[in-house]
Amino acid sequence: MSRILAIAYGATSYLLFLASFLYAVGFVGDLLVPKSIDSGPTDALPASVLVDMLLLLLFAVPHSVMARPAFKRWWTRFVPPPVERSTYVLVSSLTLGFLFWQWRPIPSGFWHVANPVGRWLLHAVFWCGWAIVLVSTFLIDHFDLFGLRQIYLYASGRVYSPPTFRTPGLYRYVRHPLMLGFLIAFWAAPTMTAGHLLFAGATTGYILIALQLEERDLVGFHGERYQGYQQQTRMLLPIPKPKSPN
Prior knowledge:
By secondary structure, this protein is mostly helical. It has one domain (3-232). It contains ten helices and two strands. The chain has a two-stranded antiparallel ribbon. Helix 1 runs antiparallel to helix 7 and helix 8 (177-187) runs antiparallel to helix 9 (194-222). The termini are far apart.
């Protein structure tokens, strides 16, 4: 694969990620986007639930399968290794965009916070969740996570090596602050419709399952270092673990 083509491919995938990330904020928060989680034409309840669950599966299955080491080993027989991560980012962004486009709102409400202070607080928590997501990517390696580092090293003729294991900032308190940020953003809703509840509940279930698979892969890659990290730090809740007796 030519270096110029790899750079163009990686940059395009990254720009699509940025677009999908920004749209996700507006989609979940019902802010400034033409089609949000609670806007658009509605269908009968069974049809809406079926379509929305299929859309979530369309995103979740490839997003999880393509992250597994065994799939990567098979996949890189056909996709050049320097753009493997960019391809993962591209597929995730496109399936997420399709979800935004075809999502069926379910407007019946579960809760509605009318108090202005309460709404302001929930909006603040919502933005805090997205900030945690973004900050978490930079604490590890934002550009490696989204494929740009791989492209840069390939274009400059250097060999890629995965980032070393470390626990900076938020990672000292939870093992997966990025996913914690998503959960906060998805659930901090002043108005929780049935459609939003379906989205938040399904994505929470997916995150909890996906983290089990990721933890297994991380133990396989980092070995005892990650096992020690598991013993000292909780997965999602920033609550100190009790120290083991001597």
